[in-house]
Structure formats: structure tokens, C-alpha cells
Design goal:
The complex is a heterodimer of chains A (about 140) and B (about 70). By secondary structure, chain A is mostly beta strands. In chain A, about 5% of the residues lie in helices and about 45% in strands. In chain A, the strands form three sheets. In chain A, strands 4, 5, 6, 7, 8, 9 and 10 form a seven-stranded mixed sheet that branches. Chain A has a three-stranded antiparallel sheet with strand order 1-12-11. Chain A has a two-stranded antiparallel ribbon with strand order 2-3. In chain A, a hairpin with a 2-residue loop joins strand 4 and strand 5. The longest helix of chain A is centred in the middle third of the chain and has 6 residues. The chains are: A mainly beta (about 140), B mainly alpha (about 70).
Chain lengths: ~140, ~70
């Protein structure tokens, strides 16, 4: 049985005190022979995973080769998005497939949402301790 | 707010017993006001709080799930 791994909240916005800490998970994204080390926001309010445009480019993805359109909501509703499958590895956990809405926006952080990050991992938030734990399902 | 370690409450508490009644009441009012101010500071008027979560994007979720199923 795999033990949960504990991570600290990361201070992302220093001018708003404790409200500026976010649950950002260090994660490796892998596509073909490209690997990038990034941080993903654990966003249980997001229906889907969202990949910012430049991260997709860094992974060697070609926008014009992606032919599955995705319609997002909220701030991202106006931005064109397409479905992509990426291999992901968090800490020492086994690699898994994550499906992303690859959006043409760079303003958005990497979002790890319900489909399908929260389907693959159990997440425990301890906001008062500025920590969270993650374990594969 | 982040907890402050600069004052030890254990050292401080015995001294509070020495205060006069009206000083104790003033202290209560002061602390209540201080706490209320800290709560207000959690959300600041000039700060921006972007919300990027595509909530309720059920069609998008359905498409991604089908993409995963077709791949497996």
C-alpha cells in the first residue's frame, strides 16, 4: 500500500498574508521525449484539468494536431481549448495518464481538477497547517 | 494571520490579574476590535482574487473521459 505524501502550501502572493498560500503540487509532465517539472494547483472546484498554452508548447504539443475541441466555463469560456493526454508523475508515485483541456491562455495556472486528477488521487487538505497530502487511489 | 511567537502568553497572563476591573473591560474590547480587524484584512479592497476554475464544465469533462477511454 502506498503511503500519502505530505506537501506544504506555497506562498504565491505575498501581499495578502496567509490568503496568499496555495496547494501547489510539484508534478512532472511527460509527452513523447519531453519532460517538464511544474507545479499544479489542486483545484477541487475545477471540473477538468487545464494545461496553459506555453506548457503544452514546452511539451512539444502541436496545437493544429489536436482535433478534439473542449468548451470551458468561467474565465476560460472565451478561450479556445483542445483535449490532450499527458503522462504525469507526482513525487515517487507511479506514472499515470492525465487528460487536460489545453487552453490558448497563459494567464491560467496548471489546474489539477476533478476530471481526472481527483479521480486518480486522493487528496487531504490541512489548510490550518498549510499542508496537504496526496496518495494514488 | 500567521501566529506570532514574539510574546509568551504564559508570561503575560499572571500580569492581567493585576489589572483593575475597568482596565480588564477595556482589554476585552481592544482584543475583540483587533480580531475583527484581522478578519477584515483576509480580503483586501485593492487586491485581486482571480478565479480560473472552470466549474460545472460537464461537457468538457465528458469529452476528456471519452478521450481517455479511447486511448486505453
Amino acid at each position: 500500500m502506498i503511503e500519502p505524501k505530505r506537501f506544504p502550501y506555497v506562498a504565491k502572493q505575498s501581499d495578502i498574508g496567509e490568503a496568499g498560500f496555495f496547494p501547489l503540487l510539484p508534478i512532472q509532465l511527460i509527452h513523447n521525449n519531453q519532460t517538464i517539472d511544474v507545479h499544479g494547483l489542486l483545484d477541487s472546484g475545477s471540473t477538468v484539468n487545464v494545461l496553459p498554452f506555453e506548457m503544452g508548447i514546452s511539451l512539444g504539443l502541436d496545437w493544429n494536431s489536436q482535433n478534439i475541441p473542449i468548451t470551458l466555463t468561467g474565465n476560460l469560456a472565451k478561450v479556445e481549448s483542445r483535449a490532450v493526454l499527458i503522462n504525469a508523475k507526482a513525487d515517487s508515485f507511479p506514472q499515470c495518464h492525465l487528460a487536460f483541456a489545453w487552453t490558448k491562455s497563459n494567464d491560467v495556472p496548471l489546474l489539477l481538477g476533478q476530471t481526472n486528477f481527483f479521480m486518480e488521487f486522493n487528496v487531504f487538505f490541512y489548510r490550518s497547517q498549510l499542508a496537504f497530502e496526496v496518495v494514488p487511489k | 494571520m500567521m501566529p506570532s511567537q514574539s510574546i509568551s502568553l504564559n508570561d503575560f497572563l499572571p500580569q492581567l490579574h493585576l489589572l483593575k476591573r475597568h482596565e480588564k473591560l477595556f482589554l476585552i474590547q481592544f482584543l475583540v476590535s483587533d480580531l475583527a480587524q484581522e478578519e477584515e484584512q483576509l480580503l483586501q479592497a485593492e487586491a485581486s482574487y482571480p478565479v480560473w476554475s472552470p466549474f460545472d464544465a460537464t461537457q468538457a469533462a465528458d469529452t476528456l473521459m471519452k478521450t481517455l477511454e479511447n486511448h486505453d
